[in-house]
Hints:
Strand order of the largest sheet: 3-2-1-4-5-7-6
CATH architecture: 3-Layer(aba) Sandwich
CATH superfamily: Vaccinia Virus protein VP39
Structural class: alpha/beta
Helix content: 25-40%
Oligomer: single chain
Largest sheet: 7 strands, mixed
Number of domains: 1
Radius of gyration: 16 Å
Order of helices and strands: HHHEHEHEEHEHHEE
Distance between the termini: 39 Å
Shape: globular
Mean pLDDT: 94
Bound molecules: S-adenosylmethionine
CATH topology: Rossmann fold
Amino acid sequence: MNKSMKYEVWEKLAHKYNRLWVQKYSLRPTRREVLKIVLPLLEKNKNARILEIGCGTGQLIREISRKYGNVRYLGIDVAENMIKIARTSNTAPNLKFTVCPIERFSSGDRFDIIICTHAFPYFPDKEGALRKIAGLCAENAGIVMVQSSTNDLKDLIINFFLKATTSKAKYPSIKEMRRLFAGAGLKVKRIGVIRERRYMPTIALFYLGVQK
Length: 212
Ligand SMILES: C[S@@+](CC[C@H](N)C(=O)[O-])C[C@H]1O[C@@H](n2cnc3c(N)ncnc32)[C@H](O)[C@@H]1O
């Protein structure tokens, strides 16, 4: 399968992404919880360099840059249509966007904050992606990841249906994520669960650092 076929669903979803019903019960609450971690980090370091992996239409950086207009930000996403919308709604020169899958991304820069929300389940090489994230971290970097997670039968059923609307996906359990983090040299600082509605799957939030 070539790249465009593999990720076609994201290209097609892009134009309606900001109006999807999951915005209300999953994506918006996720941004709210991510901001609770990221804004205090920016308060301490206003020059922080942020990398967002699977940035979609750039909704999160839009909210961050309302308060911290000078952040140095790079958003990457495999879907060109997502990036086009992200660029249109974030035009400041310090906010950069690149069409690139995580598996091909490399940078000489090191980042103080790395964010990845609702994108990791779609990465084909999960171990490789986490090792890459660890390698992109500046000293004392904070990493925030949020994603659907399969921890019980209810999660299994809901995520089965979720998977039908996305590119090829695997929603690892919290236990499995802990194992993957340890393997990549990432240290878990905090794990939380976002649950706005009972019919939503477990949405796990991981706040991480790099093992010294
Ligand atoms: C559910 S959306 C999440 C977007 C945004 N982070 C949010 O929380 O609303 C998943 C995003 O991951 C992107 N994505 C999927 N696989 C990817 C990969 N291998 N590398 C980079 N981005 C990827 C998709 O194009 C899509 O924009």
